[in-house]
Amino acid sequence: MQGKTNFAGEGRVLAVCISEKKGVQKSQVPEIRLIEDWGIEGDAHAGNWHRQVSLLAFEKIEAFRARGANVEFGAFGENLVVEGFDLRTVPVGTRFKVGEALLELTQIGKECHSHCEIYKVMGDCIMPREGVFAKVLKGGTVRPGDRVERLSLDPDRPFTAAVVVLSDKGFRGEREDKSGPLICEILTEQGYEVVEMLLLPDERPALETALIQLADRRQVNVIFTTGGTGFSERDVTPEATLAVCDRMAPGIAEAMRYYSLQITPRAMLSRQTSGIRKKTLIVNLPGSPKACKEDLDFILPSLGHGLGILRGTDGECGTDVPREQGYDPETKR
């Protein structure tokens, strides 16, 4: 069924699909019921996580069909086939009103661990790069033909953050990690929305993959790593950070070292760095909870302005920085 693409922020649902098992094609159904903070009733991907509902643009399916693929709606594992949006270019955090329900985009694309039947036949599958994922903010029934409205992003929305803990012993369960939860607690208290916390071994490939996924697919505003910044042979966090960044932001790491040197001279041994990948800031923190808290207490009051510039909601002028983000109009600092 061919329809006219609407570029004015509105589209419509062409099909709704579910499956009771993961890893299989979904089947079209007359309607679905979205449950708040859970997903689609009866669908295998529902749950308390960020990928509760998958969406795929009708236009991308049609382009794939034009290459000779005989695919029905649901064949790529998508829950909603939506007409009128190039979903791949919509930023994470965007909200869609779908019928009476409300969705928030949480991830662009996905990593394909095993090739599906479509890939085996066509040598390609569009879901890993064109599919997007959302969580349910408000439930409701959705049917084919329902209107889809893209809502404007709130410039005052909280910054999103992810925390990545690097620890061989922590990953093996030989030591309890305390730095990661503490960082999450501090960020939450400061108004950040912590969307992910990962515990990884001190291995560069795993860390690089995680940083790329969080920056490119989850589009988090800031990633804090903890651990792996010392002199040990397995301390490779700075090297992984340098490898994935497009631009460096050395002032942040330099400021943390300067502050920490006033507490202990051993701060000179820290190799932590900071940089930017696309619109995501990556900051290396030390491994100890005490040092993490000290560094965060020092940088967070000024960090919000930089993050606002990075995502395009703050101006370059220092006078645009609200007092709560570290700018004092009386001292002009």
CATH class of the largest domain: Alpha Beta
Look up the CATH topology of the largest domain.
Answer: Molybdenum Cofactor Biosythetic Enzyme, Chain A
CATH architecture of the largest domain: 3-Layer(aba) Sandwich
Could you tell me the radius of gyration in angstroms? 22 Å
Cα separation of the termini: 59 Å
Give the mean pLDDT: 91
The tally of structural domains comes to 2
How many individual helices? 9
- The counted number of beta strands is 17
Q: Oligomeric form of this entry?
A: single chain
What gross morphology would you assign? elongated
Low-confidence stretches are 1-8, 319-333
CATH superfamily of the largest domain: MoaB/Mog-like domain
Along the chain, the helix and strand elements come as EEEEEHEEEHHEEEEHHEHEHEHEEH
Task: Output the strand order for the largest sheet.
Answer: 1-6-5-9-8-7-11
| Percentage of residues in DSSP E strands | 25-35%
**Biggest β-sheet strands, sense, barrel:** 7 strands, mixed, barrel
Q: Give the class from helix and strand content and strand pairing.
A: alpha+beta
As a percent range, the share of helical residues equals: 25-40%
